[in-house]
Each structure stands twice: as structure tokens, then as C-alpha cells.
Amino acid sequence: MKYVLVTGGVVSGLGKGITASSIGLLLKACGLRVTAIKIDPYLNTDAGTMSPIEHGEVYVLDDGGEVDLDLGNYERFMDVKLTRDNNITTGKIYQSVIDKERRGDYLGKTVQVVPHITDAIQDWIERVAHIPVDGKEGPADVCVIELGGTIGDIESMPFIQALGHFSYRVGANNFCLVHVSLVPVLNVVGEQKTKPTQHSVRGLRSQGLSPQILACRSTMVLDENARAKLSQFCLLPGENIITLYDVPNIWHIPLLLRDQKAHEAIFKVLNLKGMAQEPDLEEWTYRAEACDLLHEPVRIALVGKYTCLSDSYLSVLKALIHASVSCQKKLTVDWISATNLEDATAKENPDAYKAAWKLLKGADGVLVPGGFGDRGVQGKIIAAKYARVNRIPYLGICLGMQVAVIEFARSVLGLKDANSTEFEPNTKSPCVIFMPEGSKTHMGGTMRLGSRRTYFQTKECKSAKLYGGKSFIDERHRHRYEVNPDLVTRLEKSGLSFTGKDETGQRMEIVEIPNHPYFIGVQFHPEFKSRPGSPSPVFLGFIAAACGQLEAVLQHSSRGVSNDISSMKTYQNGSATKPQAYRQEYVYGNGIGNGNGLHY
């Protein structure tokens, strides 16, 4: 097993996650099997109880693991299925060591950070690296490890120490360290400054780790003078210093690495020369370049609770991009805080109220994503009603599905007090109820999590057609509340159709309005399985409906035709032609980043 460690220096938010993902993709394109591990030094056991505004979205895996959003980047770039153990946290490590101590596994020894914590970290890495994640038998060839945070952080020190030991444990030819650092350009002098990176490398070496490759983040290509300085003062050959400059979209980052021969530098360190081929990134290159040029817009109103930080809905945003590219449209997302649509805001902040409604009324489609808590729920219900009444394409995810049901019950069934017991425990018309297997005392890991099966009740509904006429699908879930099965019959008699249910037939998974252009709510989170070359079917249908291409997409899906842009299929008029240009709005970097990795 070979290991590639990706660390970061100078500041956070440089894009270690995208860099690690791109390295994984590049190595996979060279014919190697790749897996990935993310190390998060925080004390939380997992990301499940963390606020999306503070840490970005909680990404959910097939096995129910609630993990850091960077694992979503790994899965999207490398097209793998990771496990909860691929996300290591300080909380997990300390918990495992304390459990061993309580069992008496250490035979009376004094339990210390070194060697017990550091050994536990190394053992965890080695064990998880050998778990296959690509559907094939046996372990991967290379494991890409990303160390979260910045070199010098107090909470990272045990991991730095452990990784230093680990490099000796596995041997020099089996361990390659890629250090991502900032090379800023000061506006006053217009010169690329290498000193921050020099100090970062010195700090890394002082803790027992020496980088073999430098990945320098900058707004522009690294000039020869800066490269020579870094080579001289960081004691690295010039060909091992790579520039990751700002590009139109993050799909270009693997291409930057390829063009600068990063794979060859890694192969040389890991003694893989002769064992791997030249990278085959033809489809990826085509997709990245096509994305830069498409120009016809599709405008989506995303009505949510955490709209102040786009990383809170990162996978939703990525799924929208995947679908938009397949439909050859330039995606524009209008972020609408749900509370700004409510009547109370009209009185308290009329300008925000008018601005929110202007965005909603100008949208080609309305999306209400998942969320927790009652803040903004009324605004989400208003958005669902607006889309239903005005026949605007609507996609509701998790809570977005639940608010659509609540709105329908209030407006069509006449149940004015219809609500979820999450927001009104004593409501007389509970449309959404707490699931019996949930816990009301413990928050972490107690929801209905991970991959669950949904059975279509008819193959004639839009969702079934989008999924290619399958009788069932497996999608990832994260929820505590569900549609009240006692109300289903009344809702269906009034025009709502529950087209997808679980294996018992009692848990509602997909809801549609058959006579609406596109009104679909799903209890699961389809965004977590969307990929650049294989967009989520319900997202694809949503974007297609928003730009007038739904019938063509349904025809393609029913015939089993690829939805990948690389297949050169277009859904315009159902013809198979070469895609037009695309200009993506979410770019890799605006100087430094957004504080949570470059996920634009």
C-alpha cells in the first residue's frame, strides 16, 4: 500500500480537499486503484451534530456515516463509496483508546498521547486504507490522506506526530507528502511572496515531516523567480513545485496537476514508475472545457435556512451543476433566506422581503433543501405554495418534501393547523410525525441514516421514468421525521401522489403532483450520489423542467441513454448534437478561499 498525505499551511481554506480529490482522480486515471481518508482534528465524534453554518454541510455515506464535506469531494471526483471510518476525528481516536483502557487492554500501563494515541491513529489509517471502496475485491493501490486544519494548530499535533511515525513505519518508498501552501501577491508591490510557504515548510519539518511536493495556491501561475526561491529554501527540486492557480471551475484542477507532471513526481517518490500508465482524462477534460463556455442561463431559487454560507448546501449545489451541465445551461443560483419570504419580514425589513420575492418570482425553478428547526419553515411553505400554484418546477429534499405536504394539507385539504410535530408538538393535524425508532434524548447518530431502498408504486410517474423505469432505487437518508401515514389516503384523493415508499409501504419516500409540470419531493438526499458524469435523476429532471427540456430527458432516460455530457448528447429538441459552451459561476479560488476549502 502506498500513501499520499496532503497537508496545508499558512491559512485555512486553501483547497486541500479539492487538491486531495484531484490527486486521487489523477492517480485513478493512471490505472491505479485509489481510496481516501480525511482526518479532522476536532473533538466531535463525527460531523453529525455540527452547525452547517460553522462547518459546512454534513455529508452522509451509504453506511450512515455523518462525515466532513470533503468526503463528498472524494466520492464525486474519484467515484468511490467510502465508509464512516474513512473520516478520522480526535473524538473517535480518544474514544477508542479510552474504551481499550476501560477494558484493561493496556495491562496497567500509563496511557499517554505517545505512544497510545499516536499508535491508535496509525492503526486506524492502516486498517481503513485496506478497505475496498471501488466495488472490487482487495485493497487499493494508493490511499490519499488529507490532514484537516493548518500546520501549527494545537489540535493537529498528535496527528502530525503519528504521521511522522507512520512514514517510517511504512517506509520511504511508500509515503509521499504533498504540502498545500499559499503564495500571496501583495497589491503594493505585485510580487509573489514565498516567505509564508518557507515558514510553513520549516514548521512542518520541525514536527518530523518533510514534504516531497509543494502545491502552491496563488491567483496566478508561479513565476520562475518564486519557483527558484521555493526550490532553494525548501530543498525541493523545481519539478516538484506545482502551481494551483485560480481557474474557471474546479474540474480543471486535476488537469493542472497532470499538465505539471504531478503524477510523475508522485510515482518517483513512491517508486511506481513502470507500474502506472499515462493519465487518461479525455472525458474529464472535455467536461471541464465545456463547462467554461456554456452561456444559456437557468435560474434556480434555493430557499433555505443556512443560505449565508453556500457550503451548507455544497452537495445540492454540485448536483445542480452536474444537471445543468448535462442540459447545457449556465447555472445561476439565487440564495433566498426562507425567513425573508414571511409576512413578519415584510413589516420588519420590507427591503429584504421585496428582494426575496423578486428573486423567487424570477426563478425558473424552486428548490427547498433539507434542514432542522422551525426558523424559516413558514417561508419554505410559502415557496412550495408559490411553485405549486404557479406551476413552477419544484424540488423538495427531505424537509423540502415535508413542507410541500404540509402546504398541500393546509391549502387543498383545508387543514389550516396542519404542521409537523417537529415544529408544533401539539398540533391537531400532524402531517409529519416523529419516527418511532428515533431518539429524543441523544442527537448524534440517532436519525434514519444511510442508504435505504425506495420502491416505486408505478412506473408511469416522472420520478420512476427519470430513474430509467427501475422498480426500486437505493438513496441516502438523514431524517427524524416522516409523513404521517394516516393522512396519505386523504392526500392522495385530493391530488397528491406518493409514488415511492419503503419496503413496508408505510413510509413515504417520493411525492409528486401528476398534473404539475414538475413537482417532486423526496425524503432522501439524492444530491449525495450525484456525480459529474452521472447527475442525480431527480436533479436532472428538475433542471430539465426549468429550461423546457423535461420531455427529451424522460425519453432519453426511458431508453437508457447516458446523461453524461461526455456522450455529446443534448436534450434540446431531443437531438444528439455536440454541446454548446458553458460558463460556470463557481470558480476555484478568489485569492485565498472561503475558509472551508475551495468548494465553489
Task: Explain what this protein looks like in three dimensions.
The strands form four sheets. Strands 11-10-12-13-21-20-19-16-17 form a nine-stranded mixed sheet, sandwiched between helices. The protein has a seven-stranded parallel sheet with strand order 5-2-6-1-7-8-9, with helices on both faces. It has a three-stranded mixed sheet with strand order 14-15-18, covered by helices on one side. Strand 7, helix 7 and strand 8 (213-218) form a beta-alpha-beta unit. 52% of the residues are buried. The chain is globular, with a radius of gyration of 25 Å. With 600 residues, the chain is an alpha/beta fold. It has 20 helices and 21 strands.
